[in-house]
Hints:
With 165 residues, the first copy, chain A, is mainly alpha-helical. The first copy, chain A, is built from seven helices and four strands; from the N terminus they run H-E-H-H-E-E-H-H-H-H-E. In chain A, helix 1 (5-17) packs across helix 4 (76-84).
Amino acid sequence: MRIGKGVEWxxxxxxxxxxxxxxxxxxxxxxxxxxxxxxxxxxxQLQALSRAGIVAAQRGAAGGYWLAQAPESLSLWDVTAxxxxxxxxxxxxxxxxxxxxxxxxxxxxxxxxxxxxFQRAEADYxxxxxxxPLTDVIAGVxxxxxxxRKRRIRDWIQQHAAHRA
Amino acid sequence: MRIGKGVEWxxxxxxxxxxxxxxxxxxxxxxxxxxxxxxxxxxxQLQALSRAGIVAAQRGAAGGYWLAQAPESLSLWDVTAxxxxxxxxxxxxxxxxxxxxxxxxxxxxxxxxxxxxFQRAEADYxxxxxxxPLTDVIAGVxxxxxxxRKRRIRDWIQQHAAHRA
Lengths: 165, 165
């Protein structure tokens, strides 16, 4: 089981955008520079976040991205779902119906007990991520950061954030 | 996020092996036939289950596979870990250390709050699967199966299980 790097990048992106002053935006290249990741690949994650309604975008010279929702109502599950989709990670191919002793349709009114157990586990996983709003992530970062780093981040944002048209 | 078909096959394999009479084994081809899956690919899952100490194998004419552990002490997490490995699905690349405002090593004594949240979610996922012993899966299948199907399964096992040397 593997979650792509895109989720990590998207989560850091949203945490940074949550720090923008109201009415401002951050260009894709500046975001990529802040995170130290390649801009063309981050652009894909930004597109996915935009499609999911998590970030909003504005084109042009003063263009850029900003959070389209309040950070306290955006969870790590929202970000993960935007990037990885919501298809279940365990896809039941109904093995129970195959072979010489396969179950009849009447015996398969409920999900296969194996698939059901994976569904419950995945629901637990999603619930745990849904319980972490972006504000918790930011609070966690703030706890670990020195005041010098917090100041550097504030200065960097002030330098790179553009007013939205 | 995606779990391979191998996990589904391995779980069904173990559930079937749990029904074998003591001292008997089932050939890989017979197992594949019962599940209606291609034998060469199932052989890979059987190898992985064997490496993990979940099944035992015996070569030769009367060769085959059997459960190496009691079904009540084998969980769906054991089976999943044997096939997919135990590497975390979210792999933190320490984005927080990169870029113009990257955190210093001293600020990174704990895990990144984003990585920590995914670790907690994955622990919940594994815990949910670890709470499902093979005996629960078998009880679930037994609940859905008609007595005619249970008899067919018993007969098939009697016909195909070989005494171990």
